[in-house]
Amino acid sequence: MVDHLPKFKPGQDVTLTAGAAITGKQLLYVSGAGAVSPTTASTANWLGVARQDTAAGDKVVVTKGGFQKLLASGSIAAGDLVVPAAGGAVATLGGGNAAHRVGVAVEAAASGQVLVAMDR
Question: Which domain of life, per UniProt (predicted)?
Fold first, then answer.
């Protein structure tokens, strides 16, 4: 009989390879096998938030779930649903695809950042 042990537990930070240069607080998506990059547009395959600045090819810690301070693209009000945007930021859902939803803004965006209750 083969036992199965998960590599990472639900909600636990994961360490993956940076597929591009990454800045801490950027929203990341799966960009290749075991690799993540900053989001470039709204996408359903976003994974989590970069914990630190990382050069392409180096290891990056990806934080998932909870309340995260993310980079904000445009005006975001408290209570707005947010989706991935260019530059690893989030933007309001607006007329976008609800399946790409990252979470809900807990505060209004200030100084280019917004606190988000993450969906995953």
Answer: Bacteria
Q: Is 88 helix (H, G, I), strand (E, B) or coil?
A: helix
| Extended strands (E) in the chain | 14-18, 27-32, 35-38, 46-50, 59-63, 67-71, 81-84, 90-92, 103-105, 113-118
Radius of gyration of the chain (CA): 14
The yes-or-no verdict on residue 8 having pLDDT over 80 is no
4 phi, psi to nearest 5 deg:
-120, 125
| Residue indicated by tokens 């979470």 | 103
* Least reliable range by pLDDT among 4-8, 14-18, 78-82, 103-107: 4-8
Burial class (CB in 10 A: 0-12, 13-18, 19+), 17: middle
CB 39 within 8 A of CB 46: yes
Please check the confidence at residue 10 and state whether its pLDDT lies above 90.
no
